[in-house]
C-alpha cells in the first residue's frame, strides 16, 4: 500500500512526502535523503525508513540524542503502523496512509463508554455560573480574582475582529493560560465528527467516555490524577504521554454544543482544581458564542457576496436576451421573460435576415438558478454562430445537439425550438428538440399545436431531427412558450394549462403582439393569485400582418 510522511519541520512548516523507493534516511548531513542542516538536535545520519516486504520499518542510525516513536525511545527496528509519530531533535514525522488528513491523528478517541471514576469531577455550565466567589482585600473591598482576570482578558481578546479560523488558536491559548495547562486541543463538531481546529501538542488520546459525556450530556469533566483513576491508569497512551491531570469542557451556545476544548498536563506541576474546571467551562461558553457569531457573520458575508454575484449575473443575462423586438416588414413581434430566481434557464431570441425573413427561437434548460443560467448562456453562444444562415433546420439542430452534448453535464438537458418566418409568403420552417409544441392561432380563432420533432438537446450525440413547415395567413400568429407558462399553479395546485393559454390567445388574437403578451401575463397572474412562481416564464409571439 502506498504510504506518505507528514513532516513537521524545525521551521514549524508541515508538508506531505510520498514514501517511495526502499530506503529514506534522515539527518543533518547533506548526504541524508531528508536533510535538515539547521536542526542541531539531529545527528548527521540520525534514523532511516526501510521497506521490508510490505512493511516499512524505522531504525535509529546510532544517533547521539536518540529517536523516539510515540514518545518511546527506539532501541531496535520497529514496524510502523499508520499514525505512528517519529520524533528526533526538533523534527516530528507522522507515518500515515497516502492522502491522510494531517490533523486526523492529532486526536484519537479510545476506550469504552464507561464513565471515569474515582478522581473525576463533573460540572455543567449552570453549575459553573452559580459557583462564583468574591475575593475581598483586607479592607473588605472587592478585588478582581484570577478567574475574573482571565475572563476579562478573554473578553478583550475575543472582542477583536478576527476571521473564524484565527479564533480557534486564540481560544485555545486563552484556555491553556487561564488554568496553567501544558497542552490542549480545540475540536468542533462537523456533523457527528469532531475535527481538530487548533492544538498545542500532538498525539492526544481522549477517552470516548469523556468525549460522549461532554458532547451528549453537556458536562465538563476534570480528572485530577489520570495515573490513579481506574478508568485511565492502565492505558498505554496515558503512560506514554505521562498525562497527570486533564479537563474537557463543551463549547456550548445556549442549548447547542458546537465542539469541545480539552486540556492536560503530562507533568506533575499542579493538579487542576474544581475552580479551574468552572473557569474553563465559562470560558468555553464565552468562546462558543464568539465562534458562533463569527460563523454567522461569515455566512452573512458570503450570502451578500453571492447575492451581489447573482445580481451581476442577472444583469449579464438580461444583456443576452433581446432588449426589444426587431422591426420586420410584414411581422409583429413581442417577447417576455421572467426567471423564477435571480437568474434563469430560459432563453429566447430573434434573428432578422437580410432577405426579410426572421428567426424565432426559444429554449428551456432543465433545472433553475445559476447552473441553468450558465447553460442558457452557452446555448445562446452556440445558436448565435449556427443561426447565421440556417438553410436546413434539421442539419442546424443536429449540429447544435452535437455541440451541446460535448459540453452538457449528464444530469442536464435542453428543450429547444427554432423557426424561420417569411412574412412575404407566410411560410414557417421549424425544427423542435423536445420543446413544448408551439401554438398557431388563426385569425378565424382556430388553434393548432405544432406537434412532432426530435429528442431534447444534450442527451444523444447522434439523434434524428427533421425540418417541418406550416404557414401563416395575414392575422395569424405563432406563439412559443416555456413550460413555466402552462405548468404555473394556483394555491390549489391546479395548472394554468395549454387550454387556458389558447383561450387567452384567441380572445386577444386581433391585438398587437405586445398586447397579446401582456394579456397572457395578466391572465397568468390572476390565475396563480399569489402562489409562488415555480419556474422561469418565457413567451414569444410572432404575428403576420
Word description of this protein:
Helices cover 30% and strands 30% of the residues. The protein has a six-stranded antiparallel sheet with strand order 2-1-11-10-7-8, with no helix packed on it. Strands 13-19-20-21-16-17 form a six-stranded antiparallel sheet, with helices on both faces. It has eleven helices and 31 strands.
Characteristic terms for this protein:
single chain, 545 residues, alpha+beta, 6-stranded antiparallel β-sheet, 11 helices, 31 strands, 30% strand, elongated
Distance linking N and C termini = 76 Å
Beta strand %: 25-35%
Structural class by helix and strand composition: alpha+beta
* Contiguous runs where pLDDT drops below 50 for at least 5 residues: 132-144, 232-241
Shape: elongated
Structure, briefly:
30% of the residues lie in helices and 30% in strands. It has 545 residues and is of the alpha+beta class.
Per-chain topology:
Blueprint: E1 3-8, E2 14-19, E3 23-27, E4 34-35, E5 47-52, E6 55-60, E7 68-69, E8 72-73, E9 78-79, E10 85-88, E11 91-97, E12 107-110, E13 120-124, H1 125-130, E14 135-136, E15 142-143, H2 146-159, H3 164-179, E16 183-190, E17 193-200, E18 204-207, H4 208-217, E19 219-223, H5 236-241, E20 245-253, E21 256-265, H6 274-320, E22 331-338, E23 346-352, E24 358-365, H7 369-386, H8 393-407, E25 414-421, E26 427-433, E27 439-441, E28 447-449, E29 468-471, E30 477-481, H9 483-486, H10 497-507, H11 513-528, E31 537-544
Parallel strand pairs: 3-4, 12-18
Antiparallel strand pairs: 1-2, 1-11, 3-5, 5-6, 6-9, 7-8, 7-10, 10-11, 13-19, 14-15, 16-17, 16-21, 19-20, 20-21, 22-31, 23-24, 24-25, 25-26, 26-29, 27-28, 27-30, 30-31
Amino acid at each position: 500500500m502506498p504510504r506518505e510522511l507528514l513532516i513537521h519541520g524545525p521551521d514549524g512548516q508541515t508538508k506531505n512526502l510520498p514514501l517511495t523507493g526502499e530506503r529514506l534516511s534522515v539527518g543533518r548531513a547533506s548526504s541524508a535523503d531528508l536533510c535538515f542542516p539547521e536542526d542541531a538536535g539531529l545527528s548527521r545520519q540520525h534514523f532511516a525508513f526501510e521497506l521490508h516486504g510490505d512493511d516499512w520499518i524505522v531504525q535509529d542510525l546510532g544517533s547521539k540524542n536518540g529517536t523516539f516513536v510515540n514518545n518511546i525511545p527506539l532501541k531496535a527496528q520497529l514496524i510502523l503502523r499508520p499514525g505512528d509519530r517519529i520524533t528526533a531533535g526538533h523534527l516530528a514525522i507522522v507515518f500515515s496512509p497516502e492522502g491522510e488528513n494531517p490533523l486526523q491523528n492529532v486526536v484519537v478517541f479510545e476506550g469504552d463508554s464507561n464513565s471515569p471514576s474515582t478522581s473525576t469531577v463533573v460540572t455543567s455550565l449552570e453549575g459553573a455560573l452559580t459557583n462564583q466567589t468574591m475575593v475581598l482585600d483586607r479592607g473588605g473591598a472587592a478585588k478582581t480574582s484570577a478567574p475574573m482576570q482571565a475572563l476579562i482578558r478573554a473578553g478583550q481578546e475575543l472582542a477583536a475582529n478576527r476571521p473564524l479560523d484565527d479564533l480557534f488558536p486564540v481560544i485555545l491559548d486563552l484556555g491553556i493560560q487561564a488554568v496553567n495547562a501544558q497542552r490542549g486541543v480545540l475540536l468542533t463538531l462537523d456533523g457527528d465528527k469532531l475535527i481538530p481546529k487548533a492544538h498545542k501538542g500532538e498525539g492526544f488520546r481522549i477517552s470516548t467516555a469523556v468525549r460522549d459525556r461532554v458532547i451528549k450530556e453537556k458536562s465538563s469533566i476534570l480528572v485530577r490524577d489520570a495515573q490513579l483513576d481506574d478508568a485511565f491508569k492502565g492505558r498505554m497512551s496515558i503512560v506514554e504521554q505521562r498525562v497527570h491531570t486533564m479537563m474537557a469542557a463543551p463549547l456550548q451556545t445556549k442549548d447547542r454544543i458546537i465542539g469541545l476544548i480539552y486540556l492536560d498536563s503530562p507533568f506533575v506541576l499542579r493538579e487542576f482544581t474544581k475552580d479551574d474546571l468552572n473557569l474553563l467551562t465559562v470560558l468555553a461558553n464565552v468562546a462558543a458564542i464568539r465562534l458562533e457569531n463569527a460563523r454567522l457573520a461569515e455566512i452573512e458575508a458570503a450570502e451578500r457576496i453571492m447575492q451581489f454575484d447573482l445580481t451581476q449575473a442577472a444583469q449579464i443575462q438580461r444583456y443576452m436576451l433581446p432588449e426589444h423586438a426587431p422591426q420586420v416588414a410584414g411581422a409583429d413581434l413581442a417577447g417576455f421573460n421572467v426567471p423564477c430566481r435571480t437568474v434563469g434557464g430560459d432563453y429566447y431570441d430573434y434573428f432578422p435576415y437580410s432577405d426579410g425573413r426572421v428567426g424565432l427561437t426559444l429554449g428551456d434548460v432543465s433545472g433553475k438558478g445559476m447552473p441553468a443560467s450558465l447553460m442558457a448562456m452557452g446555448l445562446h453562444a452556440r445558436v448565435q454562430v449556427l443561426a447565421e444562415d440556417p438553410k436546413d433546420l434539421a442539419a442546424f439542430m443536429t449540429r447544435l445537439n452535437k455541440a451541446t452534448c460535448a459540453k452538457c453535464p449528464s444530469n442536464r438537458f435542453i428543450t429547444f425550438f427554432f423557426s424561420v418566418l417569411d412574412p412575404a409568403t407566410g411560410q414557417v420552417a421549424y425544427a423542435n428538440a423536445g420543446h413544448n409544441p408551439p401554438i398557431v392561432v388563426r385569425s378565424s380563432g382556430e388553434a393548432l399545436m405544432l406537434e412532432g420533432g426530435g429528442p431534447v438537446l444534450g442527451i444523444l450525440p447522434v439523434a434524428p431531427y427533421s425540418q417541418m413547415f406550416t404557414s401563416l395567413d395575414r392575422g395569424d400568429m405563432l406563439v412559443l412558450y416555456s413550460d413555466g407558462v402552462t405548468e404555473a399553479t394556483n394555491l390549489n395546485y391546479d395548472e394554468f394549462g395549454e387550454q387556458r393559454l389558447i383561450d387567452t390567445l384567441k380572445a386577444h388574437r386581433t391585438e398587437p403582439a405586445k398586447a397579446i403578451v401582456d394579456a397572457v401575463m395578466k391572465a397568468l397572474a390572476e390565475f396563480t393569485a399569489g402562489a409562488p412562481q415555480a419556474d422561469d416564464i418565457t413567451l414569444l409571439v410572432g404575428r403576420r400582418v
